[in-house]
Design a protein that fits this description.
By secondary structure, the protein is an alpha/beta fold. The chain has a single domain, classed as Response regulator (Rossmann fold, 3-Layer(aba) Sandwich), CATH 3.40.50.2300. Strand 4, helix 4 and strand 5 form a beta-alpha-beta unit. Helix 2 packs parallel to helix 3. The longest helix has 13 residues. The chain starts with 9 loop residues before the first strand and ends in a 6-residue tail after the last helix.
């Protein structure tokens, strides 16, 4: 019986907080994902569009050079359909609405989420359910 090699899922983390980005990257890589990091929306847009597209995006909203909502709208206009989790310090209705309009799958307020919970959300979105 031949075992299929699992496809490693690619995640792009776009976050200007280097400490948080590093912890996210480490946690996601520990869970078996391949992770790229961009420190602002311009870098994120470039990384998402070059080479193999990411399977999922984790995007901060408030960043220098280009915010996460603008970046996500640009990526959607270029045909990138990967699910996106917006990670932010804001819990305001207009930010939630902007993120939803840009095509965000989830809107996560940083203070409300533990890293392990975020990793579990990513796993549930990208990994097939295992059957016994």
């Amino acid at each position: 019986m031949r075992m299929e090699t699992p496809i490693i899922k690619r995640i792009l983390v776009v976050e200007d907080d280097a400490v948080l980005a590093g912890m996210l990257k480490q946690s996601l890589e520990g869970a078996g994902f391949r992770v790229a990091h961009a420190k602002n929306g311009e870098e994120g847009r470039a990384l998402a569009l070059e080479g193999t597209p990411p399977d999922l995006l984790i995007v901060d909203i408030d960043m220098p050079k280009m915010d996460g909502v603008t970046m996500l709208k640009m990526l959607r206009s270029k045909g990138l359909t990967a699910p996106a989790f917006m990670l932010t310090n804001f819990n305001q209705a207009e930010h939630v609405a902007d993120a939803a309009e840009a095509g965000a799958l989830e809107y996560l307020v940083k203070a409300d989420w533990d890293l392990n919970d975020i990793v579990e959300k990513v796993k549930s979105r990208l990994l097939p359910a295992r059957t016994a």
